[in-house]
C-alpha cells in the first residue's frame, strides 16, 4: 500500500530546522564561520547641504564613482586570481580604468559588493570601514560646495558630520595620526607598489585628487573661483595619467601637504582621510604579498583595521604628523593642487621610497629607495609657494635636513598670492587671442602664443607642441571653423605667476556631413614670462549630445 504523508506539526518543523541549522554551523570550516559579520549600512546624515557637490561639480563627483570601481576591481582581482600575471592589473585593468571608466565615469555611486563579491565576503568589516569614511568624504565636499553657507555654518556642519562619523567606533578610523610605520614597515609592506607600480601610482593619484579637491573649495573666494579651481585640479589629475608611473605621485599624498588650508581648519577630518588612504595601501600589500598565506589574509586585514581604529597603535602627535607630511615632500606627492604649473614637480626621492621618521615627524633616513639623483639642491620651481627646496634628503643625519621649513601660514591668501585684476585681464586677452586665431585659421599666431613646452591634453594623453603642430593643429582649426561655440563667462584666476582660464561651452556644427552637438570644458594654463603671458597647457574635453 502506498505510504501516507502525514503533515508535520509547526512545532516539530521548527525543532527540526533549528537542529539542521545548528548541524550546518558545526560543519562550516573555521575560516568561513569566522566571516560572519554584524556590520550594517548607514547613509548620509540628513542635512540641507546634501548632494550640493554632485549638483555643482558633477564632472568631479562622477570621478569618485570611477575611483570606487577601481578600488573594488583591484581587490577582487588580487583576491580571486592570486596567480594572475602582472599584466592583468598593470595592463588590462589599468587600461580599462584609464581609457574607459575614467573617461566616461558612472553617473551615480556604485554598489561595490557587486564588483568585489569575493573580497566583500573575505573582509566585510574592512569594506564597511572604507564605505563609512568615503561617505564622510562626500558629505564634507557637500558642505564646502554649498554657497548658501558661511564659514561658521560650514564649521558647525563639519563638526556634526565628524560626530556622526565617530558614532560608529566599530568601523570609524581613528582621528589620531598614525605613523607611516603602520603602512609601510610591516612584514607584508611594499609588495603592491613594487609589483604594480602603475596601478599603485593610479591609486595615489586617486588620493591626491580626493584630498586635493578640498583646497580649491576652501580658498576660492567665490563660486566661480571654486569651479575654476576644481576644474583645474581635474585636469591635473588626468595629466598624471599621461606618462605612468613617472607622472604619478612617488609618495602617498598627505592631506596636510596637498590641502594645507583644509588640514589646518579641519585637522580631525584630514587625519581620518590619511588613515583611510594608508589602510587602502595596507590591504593592497596584504593581498599582493605571497608571504601572507591565503588562509591568514583575513586575519591580517582585520588586525590592521583594529590598529587604524584604535587611538593607541602607532600614534603620533598632530605636530609630528604635519612635520612628517612636510618632510615627505609635496614634490613627491604629485605637487600642489592650487598654484601648479603645466610641468610636474621634480621628485626628490625615488619612486615608492620609504622614509623613516622620528617621534617628532622629522625624516631620519630611508628603508627602501632613497634620494633621487641630483635631488639635493633642487629648487622645485614648479611649486609656486615653495622657496623651501627640500634639500638634503640624505640619511641618516643628525642635523635636521629641513631646518627652517615651516608649515604654510594660516591665511589662505598668503599661501596663494593672488594677482591683480590687470593680471587677470592680460591673461584673459591672451586666451581670447589664441581662440580667435584658432577659429580664423591663423596657425602662426596660435603657435606664437604657445610656450615651447606646452602640452595639449585630451582623453588622458599629453601631446607636446611639436607633435601637436603636425598632427592635431590643422584638425583643431577645421573644427573651430565649422562649429559655433557658446561659452559661459570665462573665469581667470591668477596665483603668483600662474593663471588658470576655465570655461564650459556648448558646441554646434557639422562633423563631415552630419550635424553634431556637444557640451565641453576648456582649461588653459598660462605662465608669466618676461614678454608677458604664455600658454603652457590646454585641456579640452567634451561629450556628444
Features:
disordered N terminus; 49% helix; single chain; two-stranded antiparallel ribbon; 7-stranded mixed β-sheet; alpha+beta; 545 residues; globular
Describe this structure in words.
Helices cover 49% and strands 14% of the residues. The chain is built from 24 helices and 9 strands. A hairpin with a 2-residue loop joins strand 6 and strand 7. Helix 4 runs parallel beside helix 17 and helix 8 packs antiparallel against helix 17. The protein is globular, with a radius of gyration of 26 Å. The N and C termini lie far apart (75 Å).
For the largest beta-sheet, the strand count, sense and barrel status come to:
7 strands, mixed
Number of strands: 9
What best-fitting shape do the alpha-carbon axes yield?
globular
Instruction: Give the fraction of residues assigned to helices.
Output: 40-55%
| Secondary structure tally, helices | 24
User: What is the averaged pLDDT score?
Assistant: 85
> What is the radius of gyration computed over CA atoms, rounded to a whole number of angstroms?
26 Å
Distance between the termini: 75 Å
Write the layout of secondary structure elements.
Layout: H1 10-27, H2 30-33, H3 52-56, H4 58-80, H5 86-101, H6 112-115, H7 117-122, H8 124-145, H9 151-166, H10 181-184, H11 191-195, H12 197-212, H13 214-219, H14 223-239, H15 255-258, H16 260-265, H17 267-288, H18 297-309, H19 318-328, E1 354-357, E2 363-368, H20 412-415, H21 421-440, H22 443-449, E3 450-458, E4 461-464, H23 465-471, H24 473-482, E5 483-487, E6 491-495, E7 498-511, E8 514-529, E9 532-544
Parallel strand pairs: 3-9
Antiparallel strand pairs: 1-2, 3-4, 5-7, 6-7, 7-8, 8-9
Amino acid at each position: 500500500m502506498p505510504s501516507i504523508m502525514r503533515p508535520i506539526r509547526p512545532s516539530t518543523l521548527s525543532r527540526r530546522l533549528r537542529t539542521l541549522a545548528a548541524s550546518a554551523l558545526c560543519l562550516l570550516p573555521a575560516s568561513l564561520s569566522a566571516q560572519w559579520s554584524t556590520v550594517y549600512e548607514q547613509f548620509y546624515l540628513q542635512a540641507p547641504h546634501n548632494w550640493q557637490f554632485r549638483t555643482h561639480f558633477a564632472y568631479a563627483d562622477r570621478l569618485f564613482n570611477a575611483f570606487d570601481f577601481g578600488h573594488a576591481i583591484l581587490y577582487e582581482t588580487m583576491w580571486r586570481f592570486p596567480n594572475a600575471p602582472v599584466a592583468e592589473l598593470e595592463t588590462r585593468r589599468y587600461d580599462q580604468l584609464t581609457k574607459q571608466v575614467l573617461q566616461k565615469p558612472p553617473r551615480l555611486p556604485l554598489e561595490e559588493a557587486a564588483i568585489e563579491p569575493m573580497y566583500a565576503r573575505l573582509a566585510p568589516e574592512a569594506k564597511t570601514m572604507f564605505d563609512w569614511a568615503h561617505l564622510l568624504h562626500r558629505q564634507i565636499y557637500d558642505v564646502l560646495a554649498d554657497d548658501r553657507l558661511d564659514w561658521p555654518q560650514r564649521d558647525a556642519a563639519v563638526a556634526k558630520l565628524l560626530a556622526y562619523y565617530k558614532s560608529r567606533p566599530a568601523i570609524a578610523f581613528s582621528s589620531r595620526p598614525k605613523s607611516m610605520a603602520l603602512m609601510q614597515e610591516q612584514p607584508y609592506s611594499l609588495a603592491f607598489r613594487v609589483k604594480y607600480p602603475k596601478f599603485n601610482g593610479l591609486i595615489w593619484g586617486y588620493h591626491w585628487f580626493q584630498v586635493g579637491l578640498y583646497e580649491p573649495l576652501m580658498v576660492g573666494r567665490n563660486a566661480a573661483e571654486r569651479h575654476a579651481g576644481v576644474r583645474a585640479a581635474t585636469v591635473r589629475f588626468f595629466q598624471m595619467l599621461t606618462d605612468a608611473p613617472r607622472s604619478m605621485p612617488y609618495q602617498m599624498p598627505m592631506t596636510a601637504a596637498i590641502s594645507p588650508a583644509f588640514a589646518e581648519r579641519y585637522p580631525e577630518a584630514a587625519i581620518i582621510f590619511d588613515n583611510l588612504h594608508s589602510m587602502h595601501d595596507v590591504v593592497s600589500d596584504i593581498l599582493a604579498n605571497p608571504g601572507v598565506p591565503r588562509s591568514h589574509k583575513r586575519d591580517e586585514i582585520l588586525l590592521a583595521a583594529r590598529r587604524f581604529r584604535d587611538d593607541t597603535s602607532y600614534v603620533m602627535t598632530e605636530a609630528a604628523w604635519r612635520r612628517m607630511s612636510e618632510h615627505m615632500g609635496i614634490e613627491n606627492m604629485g605637487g600642489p593642487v592650487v598654484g601648479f604649473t603645466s610641468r610636474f614637480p621634480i621628485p626628490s626621492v625615488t619612486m615608492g621610497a620609504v622614509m623613516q621618521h622620528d617621534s617628532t615627524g622629522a625624516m631620519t633616513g630611508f628603508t627602501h629607495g632613497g634620494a633621487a639623483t641630483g635631488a639635493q639642491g633642487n629648487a622645485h620651481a614648479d611649486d609656486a609657494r615653495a622657496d623651501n627646496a627640500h634639500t638634503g634628503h640624505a640619511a641618516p643625519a643628525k642635523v635636521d635636513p629641513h631646518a627652517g621649513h615651516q608649515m604654510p601660514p594660516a591665511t589662505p591668501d598668503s599661501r596663494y598670492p593672488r594677482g591683480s585684476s590687470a593680471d587677470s585681464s592680460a591673461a584673459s586677452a591672451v586666451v581670447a587671442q589664441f581662440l580667435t586665431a584658432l577659429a580664423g585659421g591663423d596657425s602662426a599666431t596660435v603657435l606664437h602664443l604657445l610656450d615651447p613646452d606646452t602640452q595639449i591634453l585630451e582623453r588622458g594623453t599629453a601631446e607636446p607642441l611639436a607633435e601637436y603642430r603636425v598632427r592635431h593643429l590643422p584638425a583643431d582649426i577645421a573644427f573651430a571653423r565649422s562649429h559655433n561655440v557658446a561659452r559661459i563667462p570665462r573665469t581667470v584666476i591668477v596665483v603668483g605667476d600662474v593663471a588658470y582660464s576655465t570655461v564650459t561651452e556648448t558646441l554646434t556644427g557639422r562633423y563631415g556631413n552630419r550635424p553634431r552637438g556637444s557640451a565641453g570644458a576648456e582649461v588653459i594654463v598660462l605662465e608669466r614670462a618676461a614678454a608677458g603671458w604664455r600658454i603652457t597647457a590646454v585641456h579640452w574635453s567634451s561629450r556628444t549630445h
